[in-house]
Amino acid sequence: MQLEHIGIASADIEADLERYRLLFGIAPYKVEEVPSEGVRTYFLDAGGTKIELLEATSAESAIARHIEKRGPGLHHLAFAVENADGMMERVRQQGLRPLSDAPKAGADGKLIFFVHPKDAGGVLTEFCAPGKPPEAE
User: Which neighbouring-strand residues pair with 3?
Assistant: First the structure.
């Protein structure tokens, strides 16, 4: 298992994109909207580690609620796994709480699920695997 990306909630995407350009000389290599989550994602390559800037597209989205409650900044750490269903089962067997009943389609063509931050040392943790659920194909 390895770190797949770092998710950062953005309250001002243009300012954040400019900050990354000025500080690190990087710009998004991919922008993708995930309508089911009410989010637009901006992927940046930071020397082999991906940064995912998250912009709310809906006031009811999890990102909008996160920013309202906690402000912009670190949202989650995502880890690559081969099998999302298998990892979700492992998480449950360890007594941890996934935030969904099953993995679902996420950005970047991944199948994803999150573990409650109270079960992960206060850090929202995402697991992502290649592919999308059968109903999304």
Answer: 79
Q: Which domain holds residue 99?
A: 2-136
| pLDDT tens-digit map of 1-11 | 799 999 999 99
Determine the Cα–Cα distance for residues 43 and 22; give it in Å rounded to an integer. 16
Name the β-bridge partners of 130. 110
For 1, the token pair is: 């298992």
Query: Is this model's pTM higher than 0.85 or not?
Result: yes
Q: What pairs with residue 50 in β-bridges?
A: 5, 45
SS3 label, residue 137:
coil
8 A C-beta contact, residue 5 and residue 50: yes
Look at the chain and report how many structural domains it folds into.
1
